[in-house]
């Protein structure tokens, strides 16, 4: 089964690396802190100071998240587990994004966050159901199906916060999209905003439950 090959655990390869020995705690802390920050901005920040507050913090987060951990972790996911551990998590996020759009357009009535008027609670829930079902019925080996569902839950519940974060940045900057590279869809950053945490989660999950 593709993606199930096992390599030497990362901790043994980089025994002296602080990050390699604490990546689970670092990932959990960063993910929870990020979600807490987004929620606090959405719910507590005064409208007149929203722009400056988001801009000063968000550009730092964007630069760090896009340029430092993502390429490194994607490389390790492919090197340690195979191309499956890059393609499948990415496809889950894309599936969730498309399902949220379709379900939101069809059933959406309740606004999810004020910064993203097109994102609805119905779309969020519908995307969760569709993504988990897709992960479960995908033609995967039985032994990996449970892990696929776990990743689908993360892609549905946590990854959208990357999109909320990007919406806050664009709103504070007075932008509709980051770029016009893809007609009708904005720039490359607009297409991968929900991928911010997926590579980190896949790395932590693989080395916690698959490689071990």
UniProtKB/TrEMBL annotation:
<dbReference type="GO" id="GO:0016024">
    <property type="term" value="P:CDP-diacylglycerol biosynthetic process"/>
</dbReference>
<keyword id="KW-0548">Nucleotidyltransferase</keyword>
<feature type="transmembrane region" description="Helical">
    <location>
        <begin position="82"/>
        <end position="102"/>
    </location>
</feature>
<comment type="pathway">
    <text>Phospholipid metabolism; CDP-diacylglycerol biosynthesis; CDP-diacylglycerol from sn-glycerol 3-phosphate: step 3/3.</text>
</comment>
<dbReference type="InterPro" id="IPR016720">
    <property type="entry name" value="PC_Trfase_euk"/>
</dbReference>
<keyword id="KW-0594">Phospholipid biosynthesis</keyword>
<keyword id="KW-1208">Phospholipid metabolism</keyword>
<comment type="pathway">
    <text>Lipid metabolism.</text>
</comment>
<keyword id="KW-0812">Transmembrane</keyword>
<dbReference type="Pfam" id="PF01148">
    <property type="entry name" value="CTP_transf_1"/>
</dbReference>
<feature type="transmembrane region" description="Helical">
    <location>
        <begin position="123"/>
        <end position="140"/>
    </location>
</feature>
<keyword id="KW-0808">Transferase</keyword>
<comment type="similarity">
    <text>Belongs to the CDS family.</text>
</comment>
<keyword id="KW-0472">Membrane</keyword>
<dbReference type="GO" id="GO:0004605">
    <property type="term" value="F:phosphatidate cytidylyltransferase activity"/>
</dbReference>
<keyword id="KW-1133">Transmembrane helix</keyword>
<dbReference type="GO" id="GO:0005789">
    <property type="term" value="C:endoplasmic reticulum membrane"/>
</dbReference>
<keyword id="KW-0444">Lipid biosynthesis</keyword>
<keyword id="KW-0443">Lipid metabolism</keyword>
<protein>
    <recommendedName>
        <fullName>phosphatidate cytidylyltransferase</fullName>
        <ecNumber>2.7.7.41</ecNumber>
    </recommendedName>
</protein>
<feature type="transmembrane region" description="Helical">
    <location>
        <begin position="146"/>
        <end position="166"/>
    </location>
</feature>
């Amino acid at each position: 089964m593709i993606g199930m090959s096992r390599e030497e655990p990362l901790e043994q390869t980089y025994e002296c690396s602080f990050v390699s020995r604490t990546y689970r705690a670092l990932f959990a802390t960063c993910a929870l802190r990020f979600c807490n920050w987004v929620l606090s901005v959405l719910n507590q920040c005064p409208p007149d100071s929203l722009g400056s507050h988001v801009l000063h913090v968000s550009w730092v987060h964007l630069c760090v998240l896009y340029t430092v951990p993502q390429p490194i972790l994607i490389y390790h996911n492919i090197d340690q587990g195979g191309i499956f551990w890059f393609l499948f998590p990415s496809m889950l996020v894309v599936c969730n994004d498309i399902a949220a759009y379709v379900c939101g357009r069809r059933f959406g009535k309740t606004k999810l966050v004020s910064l993203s008027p097109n994102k609805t609670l119905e779309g969020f829930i519908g995307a969760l159901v569709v993504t988990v079902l897709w992960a479960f019925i995908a033609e995967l080996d039985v032994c990996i199906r449970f892990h696929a569902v776990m990743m689908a839950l993360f892609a549905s519940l946590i990854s959208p916060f990357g999109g909320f974060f990007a919406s806050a940045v664009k709103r504070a900057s007075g932008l509709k999209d980051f770029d016009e590279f893809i007609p009708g869809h904005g720039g490359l950053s607009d297409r991968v905003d929900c991928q911010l945490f997926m590579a980190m989660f896949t790395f932590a999950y693989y080395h916690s439950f698959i490689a071990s």
